[in-house]
Design a protein that fits this description.
The protein is mainly alpha-helical. Helix content is 67%, strand content 3%. The chain has one domain. It has a two-stranded antiparallel ribbon with strand order 1-2.
């Protein structure tokens, strides 16, 4: 299947679900508020001031970059160097393979915990994270398409 077909299916699915969700009655749902509120609670902490809200937004922005490092660089390294049976397993790959996999696995679950408790509390936090991830992915893709690659020694 052509990759463009899969991409277009993703776009169509998101569009259809957005239209379907917009027809639902979300009048007083606190998820659709924006900014700090007394009932915006993350891990038991009330995010009711601009300073607390800015801290949460800063976390989502920083974590977007960290997630991009994990998904677009570390996971690619693991896939191309550790999981690919055709890649010779150098001493450097063997040295870092387990640490990289364990760090990736623990981060994925840590990120999931944070994601569920922050981004699903209010729509604006979800949008900050989504937009940040799109921007980060754009720059990562542009970096790789430019042919620059990562300036790491082979096998690292």
């Amino acid at each position: 299947m052509e990759i463009v077909v899969i991409v277009r299916l993703l776009w169509a699915w998101m569009f259809i679900m957005t239209i379907a969700m917009s027809a639902l009655p979300f009048k007083n749902d606190p998820f659709f508020r924006i900014g700090p509120h007394a009932d915006l609670v993350i891990f038991g902490a009330h995010v009711d001031t601009a300073a607390k809200y800015a801290l949460v937004v800063a976390y989502t922005c920083i974590n977007t970059v960290v997630r991009a490092l994990q998904t677009e660089i570390l996971q690619s390294w693991i896939t191309n160097n550790v999981y690919d049976e055709k890649t010779p397993k150098t001493a450097l790959i063997r040295k870092h393979a387990y640490e990289a996999n364990v760090a990736k696995t623990i981060y994925i679950w840590f990120d999931f915990l944070m994601y569920m408790n922050i981004l699903l509390t209010q729509i604006d936090l979800f949008l900050f994270e989504t937009i940040g991830h799109v921007v980060t992915s754009f720059y990562t893709t542009r970096y790789y398409l430019s042919g620059a690659g990562l300036s790491m020694p082979p096998g690292i």
